[in-house]
Amino acid sequence: MKHESHHPPAVPSIHGFSPGFAALGLEASLLTTLDTLGYEEPTPIQRESIPPLLAGRDLLGQAATGTGKTAAFALPLLQRIAQGVKHRPAGLILVPTRELAIQVGEAVQRYGKELRLSVLAVYGGQAIGPQLHALKRGVDVVVATPGRALDHLRRHTLQLKHLQIVVLDEADEMLDMGFAEDLEAILDQTPKERQTALFSATMPPRIASIAHRHLKNPIEIKIAKEPIKAGAAPRVQQTAYAVLRPHKVAALVRVLDMAAPKSALVFCRTRLEVDELTAGLNTRGYRAEAIHGGMSQGQRDRVMQAFRSGQTELLVATDVAARGLDIPSVSHVVNFDLPSAPEVYVHRIGRTGRAGREGAAITIVEPREQRLLRNIEQLTKAHIVVTPVPTVADLRAKRLERTKASIQAVLAEGDLDQFMAVVTSLAGQGDPVAVAAAAVKLAHRAQGGEREEPDIPAIPSRPQEPTRMGRRPPWETGGPARGAKLGEGQRRVFDRPGRPGRPANVARVYIGAGRAAGIRPGDLVGAIANEARVNAGVIGGIDVQDRFSLVEVPEDLARGIIEALGRTRIKGQKVPVRLFRD
Length: 582
Ligand code: AMP
Prior knowledge:
Layout: H1 19-22, H2 28-37, H3 44-54, E1 59-62, H4 69-83, E2 91-94, H5 98-111, E3 119-122, H6 128-137, E4 141-144, H7 146-154, E5 165-168, H8 171-176, H9 180-188, E6 195-200, H10 205-214, E7 219-222, E8 237-242, H11 248-259, E9 264-267, H12 271-283, E10 288-291, H13 297-308, E11 314-317, H14 319-323, E12 332-335, H15 342-349, E13 360-365, H16 370-380, E14 385-388, H17 392-413, H18 417-427, H19 432-446, H20 474-477, H21 488-494, E15 506-511, H22 521-531, E16 542-544, E17 549-554, H23 555-567, E18 569-570, E19 573-574, E20 577-580
Parallel strand pairs: 1-6, 1-7, 2-4, 2-5, 3-4, 5-6, 8-13, 8-14, 9-11, 9-12, 10-11, 12-13
Antiparallel strand pairs: 15-17, 15-20, 16-17, 18-19
The chain binds adenosine monophosphate.
């Protein structure tokens, strides 16, 4: 991807729309929506994808989650559908998992709010009844997992003959999950003259072959691979904390409590997030102020003044707002969100560690964003340690350390005569060490050391490539995740928690269909992940025999998996499913 324009002039959209988005050819109602969402400028993938998609071109895009690719395809899809002939459904977005179907469905709904287009997500594991009703009423855009889409096609409850646009999102994941044939079957039922966009984080030959067969003269978009110029990346200690989205604010507060930054610049992607996070930090006792493109010059000057003078310890900003500011070097840069492009990350963390001073960059990262994090590592040639969020015990220990340090400082100052008299009098009644301990307790309490802390759950395992029978599943070996060359820290975080290198309790599920019925391991992974709503990463060995198959799954999930598979069709057939005993 070309990157001449990473840092266009900071033109805040105080009155009117983001000029960046308007220049891409998006219509006013979509610009209004983006403004409401607080998007200040398009991400690189959006800048590259939106114009050709609006012009009706097919597109082959290499982009990871977190780059803004959903909006990159959803905005032009919505605009073209709204302007096109009204046959339903006009748009189909295929995604590998139930979670993604829900997430992309919600995003498309959000982006299309002003256009009044209807969106429906259909996925395995969801009752089919309500889907049938909604499909019957007619929807403009369907977001679906391939298995469920095919199921509806077979029932004739989904018709694709009027389809204008198909998007294959995370195509490599769909292939990994065994959806290749399903994809072909679905695409076969769509009109030849449709527009097609295919997004994939990686471009293995299998994807290239699908693209070759189903895309017409596609425009190809790829994140640039040129490394950052040597010396351009600042020398800053970089740490990322992995946490699930609902716990991001709590995790940030925990990390800030541990780091106790003197002055930190906290980056968010959108104006909305800047405002929400600032409010959240203030309620948790931080002096934080927001700065973004939606504020007047007077407001910004006041905020900057407070930050420079040390009155405000945390400045929460969007990239666009920070770009136009003369910000002094800060002790910490915090990425509350990963930026959409590695270059922006470098630009952000350049705000710390200036002029030989020590600096630290802290990033809060969701498990699904780890690929983007690795892109950043590759480009910056710097290692980013990924660790779990500090525990409550870690924080308590840190706070005690601080209380101890402040007592040592007071001791060093001297001038304690007045207090010595009190100690002497109290010690007359008991142990002088106990007296000192009580005083420390009081000081600790006064410093907030006894505050209640929320629980931040460890993150569950992430999807991993299914293993074949005979190989140990990843959560037994503690081995690396799919395709990942992970550092030690990452492995610890992203693997199944609580079972480091210990054999898990494994059950084997018998499925009464095998090679003779055209079953491949991927079909079983797809069925289990989508129908039983379990993470593909927990599936262990898979053994497909002629007439039956065996799948290793964690014992505690076996019952749910068996029930879910019993209700569903595998490759279009009902098959017996039960617990396997030798
Ligand atoms: P995605 O890569 O589609 O999963 O998007 C990642 C996140 O970036 C989502 O939370 C979006 O809301 C957000 N996002 C997408 N585009 C922009 C943009 N232009 N400015 C700010 N945030 C964005």
